[in-house]
What we know:
This protein is an alpha/beta fold and 420 residues long. The protein folds into two domains: 251 residues, Rossmann fold, CATH 3.40.50; 148 residues, Response regulator (Rossmann fold, 3-Layer(aba) Sandwich). 36% of the residues lie in helices and 17% in strands. It contains 13 helices and 14 strands. Strand 9, helix 10 and strand 10 form a beta-alpha-beta unit. The longest helix is centred in the first third of the chain and has 23 residues. It is globular and about 65 Å long.
Amino acid sequence: MRRRSVLKAVALFAMLSLVAAACGDDDDGDETAATTTTAGETAETTTTSGPELTGEPVKVMAIYEKTAGVAVPEIGEGVQAAVDALNGRGGVQGRPLEYVECDTQNDPNTAAECGRQAVSEGVVAIVGSLSVHSGEFMPTLADAGIASIGLVPAGAADFTSPNAYPIYGGLVTAVAALGRNLVDQGATTLAVVRIDLPAAAVIANFVNSALTDKGITVTNDVAVPQGAPDMSTYAAAALEGGVDGVVLGVTGQDATNFIIAAKQANPDIKIALTATDLIDALRSLGDEATEIYATSGYVQANMDLPAVEQYLEDMEAAGITDPSKTFHMNAYASVLLLAEIAEGLATIDAAGVSATLPTIDGLSIGLTPPLQFVEGGVGGIPRIFNPCQLQLAWDTAEGEFVAIDGTFIDAFSGEACPAP
């Protein structure tokens, strides 16, 4: 019963975090060649010029909320960019990739139909998906032997389904790494400031689990009602007892207001945050936005790496002007991973992909440390496989997060991960 409660809490807070990211996203609305579809419709796809491709298309699908609810249109953009790029470089075993998109429209019934459509279309895998309604389609996919590669865990099914293969650990590893990042930057006494919901209490649990080797536990766990008009009281509660590091898990404007209040109380306070919707706010704070930290399961778009250079070229070719968002890179990487698997199959189909995934150990796609799907259980969550996170710091001069030393670490042990 205890593990089930923890999984429900993780899933609920993951959904809340995603709402924050979607609501605050400053995407300029870049469009790709994919046509928005709901269940029962097939997306039109395009390919770039390149080698002539022959044979039946290798179909992949993304299921996500594109036009309603937790709307993240960059998922489809990332998938389409990767599909076009790979087709321009020869496809998969000379066959074209085809992207089939299913927009759930934030409707559980439509989400369920998306699962049935994936089966009827004969897709070889789901890639880069994100849906708060994943419980409506993941069982259908599992029954049909269709793997979901690179899904962003948001619902309980994403953390437990035997066909779930997330590339990075989502909330589980991010929260753990935030606390470790603060300690590595010199913090000795930590507080968690999070949404005033029971589910959000898991933040302190993961932070504590990640710092057992440091002998540090969370001193203050401060719950903040959404939309709180005055953050000074909560900032004071967080900093009580000489706290010098805060893991921040509130959303949108609340996060901005808390940072301002905390910095007024202690300009040197170190803050590590989970929200992805504060870029404009941090830029507006200028030099006051010091000692702000984050983490990522992926390399950053501002890093000088061959895989990043290729990623940026492919995103530019797709007309995407802001490719720095995690959902862009995760969706793109999911297609790369599927293509790597498909290249080694005698028959490219869902069964072959699903049979290969659990054997993968040390596969590199260049955007993360080498991946494995042999053993799950990171943070006690069955379908989290890869614990590595990149520590980031806010660069006030550049107005962006940058890697502190370029090294990925295991969020729970602190050990260095292999380089991408």
